Amino acid sequence: MDEQRPTLLNSSAAAATAAEAAFRIDAPPPPPRSARVIALDSGASEVIRRVAEQSWGASHFLSYRPGSPVITAGGDLPDVLLYGADGTTLRQFSQETDGADMVFMVATADDGANAAAAIGEACWYRGITTGGVVFGDEANVRRAVAALRPHARVLLVTQDEDDVAAVLTALRA
Amino acid sequence: MLKPEINELLTRTGPATPMGQIFRRYWIPALLAKELPEDDSPPVRVKLLSERLIAFRDSAGQYGLIDEFCAHRGVSLWFGKNEGDGLRCAYHGWKYAVTGQCVDVPSEPEGSIFPRKVKLTSYPLVKIGDVLWTYMGDPALQPAVPQFEWVHVPEDQHYTSKRWQESNWLQALEGGIDSSHVSWLHSGGLKNDPLFKGAKGNEYNMSDLKPHFEVAEADGGLFIGARRNAEEGYYYWRITPWVMPSFTLVPPRGDHPVHGHFWIPIDDENCWVFTFDYHPVRPLTAEELQAMKDGYGVHNQYVPGTFRPLQNKDNDYLMDRGAQQRGETFSGVWGIAMQDASLQESMGPNVDRTKERLLPTDTGIIKARQKLRKAAEGLRDRGLQPPGTEPAHQRVRSAAIVLPRDEAFIDASREALTVMPGVAQTSV
């Protein structure tokens, strides 16, 4: 401990009181994160369609349709075609990465395994954190988890659809 | 980030609060058994879930946990005399049995029915292992007694301590669920602590500082797996069970005893941290026991005669910048327990979660909050029993295991994560 006595309460750990908390800098809330939430199969698309109806900041909700090809864009990074929240607008994932600071993949089966791999690889190269939410019956979940595991920094395996919105809210998406 | 009203819901545990009602559905640790070491021991003041209580042990060895204050004029029964079959108030001699029933009012005539009309709030208090457990809920809904493995192994196979933490219970629990801080805050302990060092798994911890996480549902709460690179084609998994509301087990290292915690609200700005070590199949060695008593592992040293840690906010946790610079500790605070407690207390007595900037790697914490919230709302609005009270929910273990990369930890570790008497913990 310092030989000199602190002259102000905030000079010591004893300042961890409710009263001293009033002197914490009241910074404005940080800007929302710019997430890309991507459903990898039809079951997941239904879930994120409902989640997308809530009010979000700069986040985009997209769906991959299983069977769509993984393509190689200019350069070596793989790319996938994704549908927007309206179900018709087509976007390439490579276009969606501009400004994105996290990508969450949502799956109920392993239909979108190829897309997960392409998205994961692209995010790795671009330094974008990836996460995954998997839910459904046990057999499908097992395969979906195996498909996503190599490409998600964190995976949540759940039976609660509300968790998607809860995670995005907590992360300020 | 958590909205203010949700933060309030999760952190307030007094009577009639939603989370307080959750805690009142479970048996919770109340005291260490050694605090009431013999019949007619002096009574002990206890505050749990914002209720002031007094604990005592009568001449027949029965434990009692009752309202601290005499029904007569509100005097503390701590001054009372523990005699015969009850605790006698020092002021006017009113006497209470362990059930809180008044059994004598000296100023009333012999045979008066008045004492029968006086009963203090009381809660059952039972000894299991080296802990005295209480249940503070509706007697009609009392669950089975706790089945956690640590309190059911033979006496020489476990050790429990308790310390006062000057923070809300939830920010302490969240530290137990979040393992991403281990490679940073506790990096010194992995190398030096006698109850941590020397395990093969530590090498994986230190060589891969970016663990990946998987969070899976469990009947009583969650299993949270942290995976790091092991040999080619394999992952090293460390799997933490969380049993609601506030029990966790640290994944084991080598053949060291297994550690864990229970965080119990004292009030909304303080909690008890019950910390234990146990080995499923062998006695703790004399060296291990001494190390625990000396504050190594997840235990701590104390201000003599108290449950207050020796390192506390009044002395800046005995900060040692030299040790920090030399790499012996990452934060300058000695000991794994106080490394956690110091930072958690620095967040403030009840941290403002509206200011957070969480990462995807905080998903375990996010999911735990979600489960607690749903349990509290489910109980409040629909009377739903929360998870974690069933014996099967409590008979879980933590595990450390190396698995092929394509194996799901929850499938491959199912046996390892279940208590199997006579079988050692799964460890690396």
Brief summary:
The complex is a heterodimer of chains A (173) and B (428). With 173 residues, chain A is an alpha/beta fold. Chain A is built from six helices and eight strands.
Q: How far apart, in Å, are the first and last alpha carbons of chain B?
A: 35 Å
In total, how many beta strands of chain B? Answer: 19
Proportion in helices of chain B: 10-25%
Q: What count of helical segments of chain B does DSSP give?
A: 12
Q: Find the structural class of chain B using helix and strand composition.
A: alpha+beta
Structural overview:
The complex is a heterodimer of chains A (173) and B (428). Chain A has helices at 18-21, 42-52, 93-96, 113-126, 138-148, 162-170; strands spanning 35-39, 60-63, 70-72, 78-83, 90-92, 102-107, 129-134, 154-157. With 173 residues, chain A is α/β, with parallel strands linked by helices. By secondary structure, chain B is α+β, with helices and mostly antiparallel strands. Chain B is globular, with a radius of gyration of 22 Å.
Features:
heterodimer, A: 173 residues, alpha/beta, five-stranded parallel sheet, three-stranded antiparallel sheet, 6 helices, 8 strands, B: 428 residues, alpha+beta, eight-stranded antiparallel sheet, four-stranded antiparallel sheet, 12 helices, 19 strands, globular
How does the SSE layout of this entry go?
The complex is a heterodimer of chains A (173) and B (428).
Chain A: H1 18-21, E1 35-39, H2 42-52, E2 60-63, E3 70-72, E4 78-83, E5 90-92, H3 93-96, E6 102-107, H4 113-126, E7 129-134, H5 138-148, E8 154-157, H6 162-170
Parallel strand pairs in A: 1-2, 1-6, 6-7, 7-8
Antiparallel strand pairs in A: 3-4, 4-5
Chain B: H1 4-11, H2 18-23, E1 27-32, E2 44-48, E3 51-57, E4 63-67, E5 81-83, E6 86-88, E7 95-96, E8 102-104, E9 122-123, E10 125-128, E11 131-135, E12 158-165, H3 169-177, H4 182-185, H5 187-192, H6 200-207, E13 212-218, E14 221-229, E15 234-243, E16 247-249, E17 258-267, E18 270-278, H7 286-293, H8 321-326, H9 336-346, H10 363-382, H11 391-394, E19 399-404, H12 409-412
Antiparallel strand pairs in B: 1-11, 2-3, 3-4, 4-9, 5-6, 6-7, 7-8, 10-11, 12-18, 13-14, 14-15, 15-16, 15-19, 16-17, 17-18
